[in-house]
Design goal:
This protein is mainly α. It has 3 helices and no strands.
Length: 63
């Protein structure tokens, strides 16, 4: 997910995306803990996507 794509969305849409990413992050952490996670790089990707969404939300709040 690119930041330019995120900037085109509204605050409500970004909040929904953030909740979905948080759920996915939790699921991946549980899979990692039980040894069922096959793509370990997915955890890093989701964490960075969460950071991008939060950054865009902060930019919107400041503007």
């Amino acid at each position: 997910m690119k930041a330019s794509e995120l900037r085109q969305k509204s605050r409500d849409e970004l909040s929904v995306v953030l909740i979905e990413l948080a759920r996915e992050s939790f699921t991946l952490k549980m899979q990692k803990g039980t040894g069922q996670l096959s793509k370990t790089a997915q955890v890093k990707k989701v964490r960075r996507d969460v950071a991008r969404v939060k950054t865009v939300l902060n930019e919107m709040a400041r503007a």
